[in-house]
Design goal:
single chain, four-stranded antiparallel sheet
Length: 83
């Protein structure tokens, strides 16, 4: 992956800092994930959120596509839960 974009915005109520990971060419997933960190100024509360957008990419053979379909979503959800 590579960092595709960085965002930083500040208002009177909150500050948001974020970066986006994008997949590289020929990866078996095509898409991106935003990692967002928001701080509420009034309370000091901090929120971390991941927003992902993916679709299957190019697979070199049928069995790698089958394996991805069998376990890919499970590992995507585990990654988001553990992060």
């Amino acid at each position: 992956v590579r960092v595709g974009r960085v965002r930083e915005t500040t208002t009177a109520k909150e500050t948001l800092r974020a970066f986006r990971y994008d997949t590289l060419a020929n990866h078996f997933e095509v898409g991106s994930e935003w990692f967002l960190l928001t701080k509420k100024h009034e309370t000091g509360e901090i929120w971390f959120r991941i927003s992902a957008s993916w679709r299957p990419g190019v697979f070199p053979n049928w069995w790698s596509r089958l394996g991805f379909e069998a376990v890919g979503r499970r590992y995507q959800l585990a990654w988001h839960r553990l992060a």
